[in-house]
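User: I'm putting together a small comparison set for a docking exercise, and I want a reference complex before I start. The sequence is below, and the ligand is iron/sulfur cluster. Could you produce the 3D structure with the ligand included, as structure tokens?
Assistant: Of course. I'll restate your input first, then give the structure tokens for the complex.
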Amino acid sequence: MTALTESLLVHASRNLPRYTSYPTALAFQPAPDDALTRDWLGAIRPTDALSIYVHVPFCERLCWYCGCHTSVPNGYDRIADFLGRLAREMDLWSAALPPHAGAAHVHFGGGSPNSLATADFTDLMATIGRRFRLRPGAEVAVELDPGHLDPDFARGLGAAGVTRASLGVQTFDPEVQRRVNRIQPFERVQAAVDDIRRGGVEAINFDMMYGLPGQTPDNVAASLTTALSLVPDRVALFGYAHVPWMKRHQAMIPAEDLADVAGRWSQAEAAESVLLAHGYVRIGMDHFAHPGDPMAAQLTDGRLRRNFQGYTDDSAAVLIGLGPSAISACPEGYAQNASRVDQWAAALERGRLPVSRQLATTGEDRLRGAVIERLMCDLEVDVGSVCLAHGCAAGALDDGLNMARALMADGLCAVSARQIRVSPGLSRLARVVAACFDQRPAPPSARYSLAI
Ligand code: SF4
């Protein structure tokens, strides 16, 4: 247990990016057309593997805490329409790609990919295979809402090629579930896990939360204990981000029902204690893995990565994002699809890649991003070595090192020569240390979520 001192409380109360990219998506600028994205795609080498992300912007229900880009379709027509346009989008991206090494990773997120009909999901998987050519042993991961998971859909995932399923569990406390409009009893989640495993998908992730209305250290710990009885391979532990100015439905959660920073800290500690007591390995800021999970080995080898889906073992050089709001990433920069379905669809109708925002990264962005990624993944970094590996002087980021040194007095990290290590027990504040290397301040209108 790490005591929340007054100085740590100040840092835990800061609003900071989660650094799933650097620069963050808030730095992206309007894209006049798709020319720059096409230039980046043209630079892909035959040996470059792809990662494919598919954003399904639909859910059967709207959970009040949700921070995702999604909506309730009220019938299947909108979903069918979406699938037709998605096929068109896949045609456009695959035609824009030069020879490449195939897709090493496919990730379905949203929204809830299980809002698709079983046959449509199977067809979508087959189309992705034809358009982007899956590499042998490719990981295919899908996010699922266990509260609305059709048993046939769950049992068909393995045959469709899915290798990892990620279930939004969040909490088992019935009162908390009621207050966030996400009712899903344990038996339903258990049945979903059984169906998924029976269908041949062995790897299962759970998302769990703290900071929701009605959560306490005790009921958070109880939910984690119950969740671990189903033996997930990985657990992502997220603090609820209350941003009703960005997500209007979050206004259904009264701010006065939420724990303060000290309360959130205690809840996170309670959850982490359960996970560690059950033998899970801490991964970066907020993930935990069974010791036998590949992510634990990747952490040990320094190969853990961080991208828009969070911590990942995906090392592909190029990410192609499909669907509204999806982000693509190339070594040269980022391109985000239009978030509004009508604008995304209109671009596709004109035969354009549907990018609406983009950012060409500079060499300094890539250098700072590499340091931030290592800090977020490994919780330590040799800044001088990263600078040299990027062709810069070892002291190129001494400004950030000096800022990190200033955090030593508060116990957040240790800095020796040009090496930084986030203090044991404070990994959940890793982004405070990472922010020392962020030279792209957020626009004044932007407000990030709490660091804890
Ligand atoms: S099911 Fe998931 S994506 Fe859909 S509204 Fe709930 S939290 Fe958001």
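The chain has two domains: 1-15+363-440, 24-321. The mean pLDDT is 95.
User: Thanks, that's exactly what I needed.
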